[in-house]
């Protein structure tokens, strides 16, 4: 009986190790795919932007990564469709940043709901 229990524990442990190894292989493939995508994005952006524009975009990425991601997507899309004549300078990047910020700008409104409360000062004449 002890041998049967020991064999069952071994099989269970082997199954756990195989599952864990399979998950790590999937994670590694996912990381490699992300790395390839990042390299592709960087190569396209280096072809599209000049050095000063690329430096500005990198500085902005420290503060607003979501905005930089949308600008990068926009630039990559423009490059893929061939609508860029040459490298984008710093001033051209500023114009694109302004355009993207206007499109994603959120308008907030503040409303005050004032409640009338019985105040003892109102009764004094």
From TrEMBL:
A GO term, aspect molecular function: DNA binding
Region annotated Disordered, chain positions: 13-40
SUPFAM superfamilies given in the database record: Double-stranded DNA-binding domain
Keyword Acetylation: yes
GO cellular component, one term: cytosol
UniProt-listed GO biological process terms: apoptotic process
Lineage: superkingdom: Eukaryota
Keywords: Acetylation, Apoptosis, Phosphoprotein
InterPro entries, per the entry: PDCD5-like, PDCD5-like_sf
Family: Belongs to the PDCD5 family.
Role summary: May function in the process of apoptosis.
Protein name: Programmed cell death protein 5
């Amino acid at each position: 009986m002890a041998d049967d229990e020991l064999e069952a524990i071994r099989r269970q442990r082997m199954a756990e190790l195989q599952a864990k190894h399979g998950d790590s292989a999937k994670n590694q493939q996912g990381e490699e795919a992300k790395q390839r995508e990042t390299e592709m994005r960087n190569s396209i952006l280096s072809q599209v932007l000049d050095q000063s524009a690329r430096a500005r975009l990198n500085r902005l990425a420290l503060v607003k990564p979501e905005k930089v991601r949308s600008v990068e997507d926009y630039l990559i899309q423009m490059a893929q469709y061939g609508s860029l004549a040459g490298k984008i300078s710093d001033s051209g990047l500023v114009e694109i940043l302004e355009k993207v910020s206007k499109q994603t700008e959120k308008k907030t409104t503040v409303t005050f709901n004032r409640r009338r409360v019985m105040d003892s000062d109102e009764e004094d004449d």
